Amino acid sequence: MHRKVMDEDLIYLVLSLVEEIPIGFVSTYGQIAALIGNPKNARLVGRVLSMSEYFGKYPCHRVVDHSGRIAPHFKNQKLLLQEEGIHFINENHVDIKRHKWKIGE
DNA sequence: ATTTTGACACTCT
DNA sequence: CAGAGTGCCAAAA
């Protein structure tokens, strides 16, 4: 029988997708949200990622917002991305047009 | 129960 | 892209 997706399932879904983002690419909260079937709830993805360290190590630094802006209060993110070859157009925006991850590449 | 807050997105300007 | 305005949803106050 069908039951509503609960937080733990959600966390699993989000993190398993984040884990699939290849080195050198970035995804967005909205993209992940759409992939888990909640296109309207990108904020939920951000909430999960904010607690992701508790569940293990995931490449959560490869998730940015729709304009390419990196997460506030996550100072290591820029360095981690640059180490993977991501180009920045300014202090806190990656070149998302160039690096956005498309499923199936 | 109502308001505020936050790792967001979309549409215009 | 930057800013402002509006929509969204869940957790915290």
Task: Describe the fold and architecture.
This protein is mostly helical and 105 residues long. It is 38% helix and 9% strand. The chain is built from five helices and four strands, in the order αβααβαββα. It has a two-stranded parallel ribbon with strand order 1-2. Strands 3-4 form a two-stranded antiparallel sheet. Strand 3 and strand 4 (93-94) form a beta hairpin. Helix 2 packs across helix 3. The structure holds a DNA duplex (13 and 13 nucleotides).
Count of discrete alpha- or pi-helical segments spanning 4 or more residues: 5
Mean pLDDT equals 88
* Helical fraction: 25-40%
Rg, rounded, reads: 14 Å
Summarize the structure.
This protein has 105 residues and is mainly α. The chain is 38% helix and 9% strand. The model has no long low-confidence stretch (mean pLDDT 88).
Layout of SSEs?
Blueprint: H1 7-18, E1 27-28, H2 29-35, H3 42-50, E2 63-64, H4 76-83, E3 88-90, E4 93-94, H5 96-99
Parallel strand pairs: 1-2
Antiparallel strand pairs: 3-4
This protein binds a DNA duplex (13 and 13 nucleotides) through helix 2, helix 3 and strand 2.
